[in-house]
């Protein structure tokens, strides 16, 4: 089974002193696919990435990356991975091209090959015009694209993207998404952490939700949405009188009313349910102004799964560790 998996995590635990940050994480990432790891701040996402990158060791459990153990075979792991962290790691006084050539040489490319590869990456990430300008003059989006380009100088079989589009404008984010899709199409395995749920929805083959140091849900976006609930119908009544009368006759799960907008919404179970609802309103002589159907979103999944109530957590402590990790990466 391990041969089919790019990443295999079993009962991973991580303690910082008396604080248990990871409490038994299990994850599989198949080769050539993307897994998106979602969770609130302090849930342990960056700690997982740090261990997968050999920048920290597990307190217990087993972790293999590309068949290499992260504790006993760290060199093999490091040869197998690329990493784009939350913080851009570039020399801002050099040009984009100089950064890429220098990093290419660190990857043992010849000068000629480093120059060729730098040009290819500048073209791929739409940075040709900016390639010979100092990085300190780049926009945030350009820096992030250059950072991703740098991680691909020698294309790794496995790539970690730790919130790669944080702070980007929509155009830069779209450019990054296109580059990530190209990597997936070429067979690269990707582990993504992100604050943008639509990013996971659009890109990931599977999604895992981590909270309180544990994986609390895993599946495709469609599977997770289905697990949260069914479709909702939202009705806007034509008048205040119709709204008040409709409140008396409409029943159902998750029923919500908004008198200011004359809106009634509830959970429905397919088209037949909607038809029965409309027939009821018509039989009562009630007129609707508009109707809309909405499916559960990944936002609904996230909020439903990570609702913590009033229980105390170690979030602030874990956040501090995550900040330290980000700086290290």
Task: Using brief descriptors, characterize the structure shown.
single chain, 329 residues, alpha/beta, Rossmann fold, Alpha-Beta Plaits, 2 domains, six-stranded mixed sheet, four-stranded antiparallel sheet, 12 helices, 26% strand, elongated, disordered C terminus
Q: Count structural domains.
A: 2
Low-confidence stretches: 308-329
Instruction: Please tally the helical runs, counting DSSP H or I stretches of 4 or more residues.
Output: 12
Strand coverage percent: 25-35%
Helix content: 25-40%
Overall average pLDDT: 87
Gap from first CA to last CA:
30 Å
Which class of the largest domain in CATH terms?
A: Alpha Beta
Say what oligomer this is: single chain
Give the CATH architecture of the largest domain. Answer: 3-Layer(aba) Sandwich
Rounded radius of gyration (Å)? 24 Å
String of helices and strands: EEEHEEHEHHHEHEHEEHEHEEHEHH
User: What is the overall shape?
Assistant: elongated
Spatial order of the strands forming the largest sheet:
6-7-8-3-9-10
Briefly note the CATH topology name of the largest domain.
Rossmann fold
* CATH homologous superfamily assignment of the largest domain: P-loop containing nucleotide triphosphate hydrolases
DSSP E strands, number? 14
């Amino acid at each position: 089974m391990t041969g089919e998996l790019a990443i295999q995590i079993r009962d991973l635990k991580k303690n910082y002193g008396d604080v248990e940050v990871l409490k038994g994480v299990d994850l599989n990432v198949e080769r050539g696919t993307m897994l998106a790891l979602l969770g609130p701040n302090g849930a342990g996402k960056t700690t997982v990435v740090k261990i997968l990158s050999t920048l920290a060791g597990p307190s217990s459990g087993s972790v293999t990356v590309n068949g290499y153990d992260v504790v006993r075979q760290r060199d093999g792991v490091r040869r197998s991975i690329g990493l784009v962290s939350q913080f851009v790691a570039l020399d801002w006084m050099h040009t984009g091209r100089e950064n890429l050539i220098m990093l290419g040489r660190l990857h043992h490319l010849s000068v000629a090959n480093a120059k060729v590869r730098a040009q290819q990456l500048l073209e791929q990430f739409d940075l040709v015009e900016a390639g010979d300008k100092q990085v300190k003059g780049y926009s945030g989006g350009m820096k992030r694209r250059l950072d991703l380009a740098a991680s691909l100088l020698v294309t790794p079989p496995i790539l970690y993207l730790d919130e790669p589009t944080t702070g980007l404008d929509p155009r830069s984010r779209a450019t990054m998404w296109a580059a990530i899709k190209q990597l997936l199409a070429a067979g690269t395995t990707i582990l993504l952490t992100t604050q943008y749920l639509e990013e996971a929805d659009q890109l990931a083959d599977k999604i895992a939700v981590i909270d309180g140091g544990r994986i609390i849900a895993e599946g495709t976006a469609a599977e997770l949405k289905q697990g949260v609930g069914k479709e909702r119908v939202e009705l806007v009544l034509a008048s205040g009188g119709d709204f008040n009368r409709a409140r008396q006759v409409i029943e159902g799960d998750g029923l919500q009313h908004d008198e200011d907008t004359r809106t009634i919404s509830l959970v429905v179970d397919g088209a037949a349910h909607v038809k029965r609802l409309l027939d009821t309103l018509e039989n009562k002589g009630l007129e609707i102004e508009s109707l809309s159907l909405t499916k559960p979103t990944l936002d609904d999944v996230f909020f439903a799964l990570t609702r913590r109530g009033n229980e105390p957590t170690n979030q602030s402590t874990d956040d501090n560790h995550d900040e330290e990790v980000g700086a290290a990466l």
